[in-house]
Specification:
Blueprint lengths: L1 E3 L2 E13 L8 E8 L11 E7 L8 E7 L12 E8 L2 E3 L6 E3 L1 H7 L6 E8 L12 E7 L3 H14 L7 E7 L24 E7 L7 H11 L1 H8 L4 E8 L1 H14 L2 H13 L3 E6 L1
Parallel strand pairs: 10-11, 10-13, 11-12, 13-14
Antiparallel strand pairs: 1-2, 2-3, 2-9, 3-6, 4-5, 4-9, 7-8
Protein name: Oxidoreductase
Organism: Sedimenticola thiotaurini
Cofactor: FAD
Length: 284
């Protein structure tokens, strides 16, 4: 373990780095890191920080970006632990000069070869509240790399927990079938859970040009809104929301319309929040 201005760091080795979206679409990579440090352990829903050495703009020595861990905690041994993260290669446009710049952490990770050593911090406390009683229901709503923690939850519930009696639902939207990440023809590692009697994934794809993944998610929710509301209204249901900030707006729009008013949906959502059954991780 080392120490920087960012706090304690550990050295992680890149074990695997593969693209899981096709060419001519946004590049998303599944990256497996290994930390050979017995004290480094994590739980589902936590995130780690990736430290990119500088110098960077404004004289910063380090740049740190957090990523949700995309697998359950079963990938551990006495010497250390392996964990996966989902990384979308990002760029941003300077609003003043219109120039395009690469995202620091995402490009650093996407270009990292197998065997490269990377400094990581954390793991950090999870924002998500996951039920421990297997009679509880879990509703997960998200798009894009927001599926990372959900993948870990599903692995945990049906793997380490040995099955789940409550109902588990995943509502997910994508622009194309290949953007489904862990649910497309090439990366269908969630398909094994479809045989579970209590698990169902509702995935909607964009059905018109320029339709966004968030709009597809709205379509997914709208097509199954009665089931979604039925589950969310039950006292043993927990809800997790992850992805772009627009996800919350799309979700609120569909569920408020189904309930008849913004006020009624806000009251139900507020009840879940106050009872510790609602959690979310949203990013711009």
């Amino acid at each position: 373990m080392g120490v920087t201005e960012l706090g304690a760091t550990a050295v992680a080795e890149v074990v695997e780095n593969r693209r899981i979206t096709p060419e001519k679409t946004d590049e998303v990579r599944h990256i497996v890191l290994r930390v050979d440090e017995p004290s480094f352990r994590y739980r589902e829903g936590q995130s780690i920080g990736v430290v990119v050495p500088g110098p960077h703009a404004f004289g910063n020595k380090y740049h740190m970006r957090r990523y949700s861990i995309a697998n359950d905690r079963s990938h551990s041994d006495e010497a250390g632990v392996e964990f996966s993260i989902l990384v979308r290669r990002c760029f941003y446009i300077d609003p003043l000069n219109g120039e395009r710049y690469p995202g620091i952490a995402s490009n650093y990770l996407c270009d990292a070869p197998v065997g490269k050593s990377i400094s990581v911090t954390g793991p950090y406390k999870s924002p998500f509240i996951i039920p421990t009683n297997n009679q509880s229901n879990l509703v997960m709503i998200g798009v894009g790399t927001g599926i990372a923690p959900f993948r870990a939850f599903i692995q945990h519930l049906y793997g380490e927990q040995g099955g789940w009696s409550g109902q588990v639902r995943l509502f997910y939207g994508a622009r194309t079938g290949m953007d489904m990440l862990y649910m497309n023809d090439h990366n269908s590692d969630l398909k094994e859970y479809f045989q579970e009697e209590t698990f169902m994934a509702y995935n909607a794809l964009a059905n018109r040009p320029l339709m966004s993944a968030t709009e597809a998610l709205q379509q997914s929710l709208d097509s199954h809104v009665e089931e979604a509301l039925s589950l969310i209204s039950q006292p043993q249901t927990y809800v997790c929301v992850a992805g772009l900030s627009k996800v919350e707006q799309a979700m609120d729009r569909v569920l408020a319309e189904a309930m008849g008013s913004d006020q009624e949906w806000a009251a139900l959502k507020g009840q879940l929040v106050s009872q510790g059954r609602w959690s979310q991780l949203l990013y711009s």
